[in-house]
Amino acid sequence: MKYCSFILFTFLFFSFLYSGNPEKFFEVSDFDPSVFYETSIISDEAKLIYWKDGKIFYKDIFGKSKWKKLQDFNPDDFFIKVERQGKVNLIPISSIYNFYFLKNKSLCAFTTGLGTTPNTTVVVVDKKQNKIIFTPVLKEQTDKKTSPGIFMDRVWFNPSVSEDEKYLVCDGYKNNGVRIFSIFDISKKELIKEFENCAYPCIYKNKIYFLKDDTKLKSVFLTVMDLNNMQEKRFEKITDRIIGLKIINDTVYIITDKNILSLDLNNSTKFNIVLKFNDYNKGYQIFSVENTFCGVYKGNYYLFIVIKKYKNDKYEWKIYAYKI
Description:
The chain is built from one helix and 27 strands. The strands form six sheets. An eight-stranded mixed β-sheet has the order 5-4-3-2-8-9-10-11, with no helix packed on it. It has a four-stranded antiparallel β-sheet with strand order 1-27-26-25, with no helix packed on it. The chain has a four-stranded antiparallel β-sheet with strand order 13-14-15-16, with no helix packed on it. It has a domain at 75-239: YVTN repeat-like/Quinoprotein amine dehydrogenase (Methylamine Dehydrogenase, Chain H, 7 Propeller). It is globular. It is mainly beta. It is 6% helix and 56% strand. The chain has one helix at residues 2-19, and strands at 25-30, 40-42, 47-52, 55-60, 68-72, 79-84, 87-92, 97-101, 107-113, 120-126, 131-134, 138-139, 154-161, 167-174, 179-185, 190-196, 198-204, 207-214, 219-226, 232-238, 242-248, 251-256, 259-264, 272-276, 286-297, 300-311, 314-323.
């Protein structure tokens, strides 16, 4: 009897181990792939949002709610600036992506661009004043040596704003295809610094955390830069394909196509694997990590992972939650 109990315990233990922890990582809702690029999050409320025709729509991540109107959003001077042959033209904003939006902050930011091309820029809006307060000018590039589809000197996307709402950071590309990230002073409306071969910048406590591609070592490293002295510090390298970088309560989370990695900024220099997606993909021909958000729900922090799944000739898009 004791032997049978031991076998049963062993079976249940390893079944749990290989099927993942359902209390830590679990499916919460469907995801609409038709608004994949438009969908963002209100981080302090855990609501998905997207913008269309001058309105912001939302729905709760937890549950099966439908999209509802949150508010009108059509600020004054709703244009981006494009410089062609020395003349600046105003182009109406017709789409919004990468919406950086928190209920308790006065500034929000987003990506917009020229049609469906990769020629995008970032915009900062003062919600109280209902007006655009900063957007870098897209400058047309006449040099023929450009990356396919990019005909601007620089393009920017994926913006976020510092906690004191002084700085804007964003991803970008040079016209030759080199990945960059940029730091702007919002009030002065000027570029502070640009970094090559870097991506996924995130401001946290007056420091910028980002991923840096060391072209000599052919490796990508988590890197931090102090805004006070612009000094950089490197952590260990990341070998998987990177989906996103988030910082919650002094811990860096890097979401890759295979794992969720964490690094405690107070007492660690190395990553821990806190979740392996392979533990949850049993029975699926495809279990692909497509996007990630972070938010607060009922006082708890979560990473929200968009998963595309395929089995029995059918695709499903789901949002999973990882409880911090």
